[in-house]
Structures are given as structure tokens and as C-alpha cells.
Amino acid sequence: MAEKYLLQVTAGPSYDPAILTEVKVNSEEPLEIKGSSLHAHLYVRIKNFRGLPKDSPTTSPYFSHSMHKSDQYSISFGFIPQKSISGDALIFGNNFDNPIRDRLPPFFGAAFKMVKYFIDPGMDGDPYADKPYLYGPALSSLNIFRVCEKIDVLPQASSKDAGVQVFEEGGDGDGLKAREEKNMPATATQRKKYYLDEENRKNFSFEAGRLYQCDFFNPFLDFNEFALKLPGFSFSIVNHHAGEPDSDHTLRYVLKNKHTDETYLVIVLTMLRKEDINASSKAAAQGPQAPLVSTGTLNQADDTVSQEKLYEPKSDDLD
Which pTM value belongs to this model? Predict the structure, then answer.
């Protein structure tokens, strides 16, 4: 069933699909995203990627790194808050606009417990709600967390840089001192456990003007198949939706403030049907039409795209 789809990743500073930008998966040139409260550089890496744009590399040197040989994907980003954010307020996870309870398998409750055990013990949410959500505190959910120096703008990075950007736990410059001052444990495992405690999170602040670097990854989610694969358990969203041939399948990751509900970063992974892309390509060949998504640097302040190039699927986007 999954072979009938192509994966597309888009991202931006809000939920508005009009300002979501297509991400070139496995590129070492980050997507820059600017919101009013947070500026970010985003990398998305997916092993054996099969999707759009078609010229995206199928894999990344990231997966050859000793830390990531078993991982299936990575959502990696650096960000600079434009105003300070409480450590207890910043959360990361998934949410949905519509109910998914009728699409969940009968054993999903047991699977959710396994996800909490294997992936994120701090995860909480309600997958059966009218607007389902699964969030965890950023300080305990993100696999890698670096505290870097105070800077005015995001550091420049491109595919021409030597090697691949692989963030490791720790910090740079006075960021190391900032970690120590807040008694943040030195290792990722200890840090994640430490910030399961609410009081410890409240004692930390994401400072305005300071760079933070994060990485979220695991070996259990296969985005090419839209499948969760845990020891002794596997569940494919696409196969489970086999009776709904007209539907696309979307998973959304969100970095947001749980106290104010302000959204800082949105990453959307969508499986698009090949036949729909083919139909759009044929229509485009016959005359002008609106693009599916835009590509370029996003600025939430005026909801504009800094680059004028817009993505339209081409006939060779199909396998």
C-alpha cells in the first residue's frame, strides 16, 4: 500500500498551510524559519527516503554516524528565542486537527504504553480526544540538547560545509556555564530524567538571544511506510487506512508554549497519493495552476516567502 504514496515534508512557524515551506529531506542546507518569537534552522533526515522533491538524497551521512546507525529519522533544529520562555512551558510532540480514535487499532492503548517506555516517558496526551495530542516537555523529550552562546542571528550553514551537522549533548562557549549554573546533567540520559521533574523545568529558562540546538530521533518510526515498529509490535497507518483510498496521511510535529498556546515551529509529514500528484502534473502542463506548497525562507511577521520559486510536482516526481 505504501508504494502508492510519496512522502512530502513541509515546515513553518505556524499551522497556516499557506506559509509552510517544502523541506528538502537529507540536505545539509537547513531551512530557515522566522517567527515573531523564535528563529530556527531545521534539518529533516529520513533513511531510505522516498518522496518529494524528487531530487532529495535518499539518505544522509548522518545515518553513518556512530550515534545514529540504527535510527530511521531525525528532526534536528537550532533556535534562538526572541523572548525568554519558561523551561516548563516549552513542549514538543504531535497534534491533530480532527479525531483519530476511529482509526486507531484496538491494541493502541498497549502500544502507547510501549511508546512511553521505549521513546519518551514524559509523553502525555489524549489520542482519543476530538483534537488529539501527544506532547512531552522539550527538556525531557528531545534526544539531544545543546546550550550555546548568545548570538544575534542563526549561524550560517550550507551543504558546502565540511561533514554533516550532527548535534551532540553539551554546549558551546558560555552555554556550558549556563548549563552548569542550572545544574543540568552532562549526559542526555541524565538530563532527560532530571527534567521529568516539573520543579527542575521551572528552574530553567530558554533565554532570549541564546542559541539552542536539538535533535529528535529514534529507530521505531518508519516514515516511508508510515509505520511504528516496536519490539514484537508493528502498526502501519497506511495499511490500517486501506479502506480509505482517497485520503492522504499526515503526521504533524509541533514546538509550542503550553501556557500561552503560541506555536513556534511546525513540521508536517504527508504521504501524497502518486495518482493525485500525476493529475496535478498533467493539469499544470495544460495551463497555470496554484502550486501545492511554496519553497523558500519563511517570515511569519508578514507571511511572505522570501524566494519566488514555487514548487509544482513534475511528471518525473513519480517512480
Answer: 0.84
Phi and psi, residue 185, nearest 5°: -55, 155
Q: CB–CB of 50/6 below 8 Å?
A: yes
Q: How far apart are CA 180 and CA 192, in angstroms?
A: 15
pLDDT for 149 equals 97
Q: Where are the beta strands (DSSP E) in 166-222?
A: 170-171, 205-206, 210-218, 221-222
Cell of 163: 561533514
Please give the grid coordinates belonging to residue 220.
521505531
The per-residue pLDDT for range 298-310, each reduced to its tens digit, is 555 444 443 333 3
CA gap 8, 52 in Å, rounded: 5
Of 83, 77, 78, nearest to 36 by C-alpha is 83
At residue 193, does pLDDT exceed 90?
Answer: yes
Cell of 255: 514546538
CA distance 2 to 225: 6
* C-beta of residue 69 within 8 angstroms of C-beta of residue 101: no
172's grid cell: 558551546
Q: How far is 212 from 266, CA to CA, in rounded Å?
A: 17
